[in-house]
Design brief:
- By secondary structure, the protein is an alpha/beta fold.
- The chain has a 9-stranded mixed β-sheet with strand order 4-3-2-1-5-6-7-13-9, with helices on both faces. The protein has a 4-stranded antiparallel β-sheet with strand order 8-12-10-11, with no helix packed on it.
- β5, α5 and β6 form a beta-alpha-beta unit.
- It is elongated, with a radius of gyration of 18 Å.
């Protein structure tokens, strides 16, 4: 079982990228709840202020639960979803995939990425047709998809990392937010995994298809 969160970016990827597993737990954010319903998936919960959809009545009728928030609030709809995760038993041990949170407004996209650090107790990936973004914490190993064209690493503040089996490798090197040489790396095309080990700190791993 995974937790699937569908947001409401104007550039959609969920229908094309997600492969249905009926045992998954589905969260629809605002108009993202309609994306689920259009695939004949009943949202376990629909969350948001629903200011960007005209189908609230249909969502309320078909979602198992609907939580409506005021449009004037401090949190984005995606943060409301992350806040809700504590209500799902075992959520910290489950893989969480977020679709349709990228490729729209740049400010919303930046907030979505930063939320990975704020809620780093969860194992979250932001996914669209071109990119997968995840957070790697201290003492964790990230594995780059062998089919990826590129990958990039961005530290939060300062981090010490090693990169193995890549076009540009590092061994226990400290990088900070002003460094650019961990952008546009590539996995080697062999039978060995391309890995990133985080010795200290936290980093964002961008995988580009």
């Amino acid at each position: 079982m995974k937790i699937i969160i569908v947001a409401n970016s104007p550039k959609k990827s969920f229908k094309e990228m997600y492969h249905l597993n009926p045992s998954d737990y589905f969260i629809g954010l605002d108009g993202g709840a309609m994306e689920l319903l259009e695939r004949r998936i009943k949202p376990d919960i629909a969350i948001g202020d629903f200011d960007s959809t005209n189908f609230l009545q249909e969502i309320e009728k078909n979602a198992i639960e609907t939580k409506i928030f005021p449009a004037k609030k401090n949190e984005t709809d995606l943060e409301l979803a992350f806040m809700y995760l504590k209500n799902i038993q075992g959520a910290t041990n489950l893989n969480i995939e977020v679709y349709d949170a990228l490729s729209g407004r740049l400010d919303h996209e930046l907030v979505a990425i930063r939320l990975l650090a704020k809620y780093n107790e969860y194992k979250v990936k932001l996914i669209d047709k071109e990119n997968t973004i995840e957070l790697l914490k201290e003492k964790k190993v990230g594995v780059v998809n062998k089919n990826a064209k590129y990958f990039s690493i961005f530290p939060i503040g300062e981090a010490t990392i090693s990169i193995r089996n890549a076009a540009y490798e590092l061994n226990n090197v400290t990088i900070n937010e002003n460094d650019t040489y961990t952008v546009s790396n590539a996995p080697l095309k062999n039978d060995i995994e391309t890995t990133i080990y985080v010795h200290s700190g936290m980093v964002y791993l961008f995988t580009i298809k």
